[in-house]
Amino acid sequence: MTESASVGTVAPHTRRPLRQLLAASVGNAVEWYDWYAYTFLAAYIADQVFPKSSGNSLVPLLSTFAVFAVGFFMRPVGGLIMGAVADRHGRRAAFTVTILLMGGSSLLVGLTPTYAAAGILAPVVLVVARLLQGLSVGGEFAASTTFLVESAGPGRRGLFSSFQYVSTSIGQLTASGVAALLVSRLGEGQMEGWGWRVPFVLGALLSLVGFWIRRSAHETRSAAQQHAARPGLFDALRHHPRESLLICGITAGGTLAYYTWTSYLPTYAELNTGMDKADALLAGTLSLAFFTLLQPVGGLLSDRFGRKPALLFFGLGFALLSVPLLKAVNGSFVSLLLVQCAGMVLLTGFTAVSAAVNAEVFPARVRAAGIGFPYSLTVAVFGGTAPYVGTLFKELDRPDLFPWYVAVLCLVSSAVYLRLPESAHKELER
Fold this sequence. Notes:
The chain is mostly helical. The protein has one domain: MFS general substrate transporter like domains (Growth Hormone, Chain: A, Up-down Bundle), CATH 1.20.1250.20. Helix content is 78%, strand content 0%. The protein contains 20 helices and no strands. It has helices at residues 17-40, 42-49, 58-72, 75-89, 91-110, 115-118, 121-151, 157-185, 188-193, 198-214, 223-227, 235-239, 241-273, 277-305, 307-327, 333-351, 354-361, 367-383, 386-395, 401-418. α3 packs antiparallel against α19 (386-395). The model is unreliable at 1-14 (pLDDT under 50).
């Protein structure tokens, strides 16, 4: 496909690339802010929305993380449906819908009644809100990943790919920072009473800003694709089963490591070392800032040296170092910060290139749906369950098994990376 086949008569990557990056990144940051606010405030949600067990204080927290996982299992549905929308009607149409859906579901979380006030209705409302958030996030990844990589100029797909996690990290960083600020400024009673709701209402307002910015984005689906026969909902799975399985293998270790290091580690430190909640959140916030700065560097390096070396750096690094790193968390602020930052360096080998690798696997006609379903399914199975599995190991009095779980899965993904053909210097089908 030649560059002139893109929208109108001008290739997508020649049309103000900074504006394309802004449209994808700002909206994506808002999406992930809304998604991650739940994780950072899980302990407060557990106290207010779930009934306390008289015998075990971990039961409400386990219930909260179970709802976290339930939201993840809607992500494959969102990836499939909104990915198909992106392939049939355009990337911009799909990610405009996803951000409005995320804003509404975030507001619903913020308005969830307490168990004391509404009984069983409280967790039901929370589950519905998380299901809608999962639908939105699954569709967001499919549409924005495709949009970003298709917007890139020659030799810049890795760099543009890295902004998927730059914006994700900014959203997560903002959620962590807002949570840390509220915890430090409000008393425990205020946080439990109304403080935990503030980030979700704020997220709903930010979604409107993201929607307005995204309206200026240029469509990246080529003119040839716009006039071709529209793909069916399951065409990517039916005609590209090997590529679908490849996405699962690429993603499995990466998503587990990602959610462990960027979301669960503060809770892991609290549960296993008794670390102060505010200190754990602060360490998470600082390490996320460091991680965000690393992403463009990783993307640029992959454009020069290839995707495969970056993925192997991540996979083998975590396979060898997950256990010693997690054992090094001893309850001090410095130990948690150093462990998180060390993991972030390794993790960049996956996060900076995953969007590019995924987009390079599938042809343009089914690219968004082809990425969205297998990626989101794998994230649901391994990433979404990471906090629950880690907390469950603690409940079973075997917290030492969780680091090995991370290491083994990263080793499995490394075997996939070894057999992966290098795609960094090949032309992307448009």
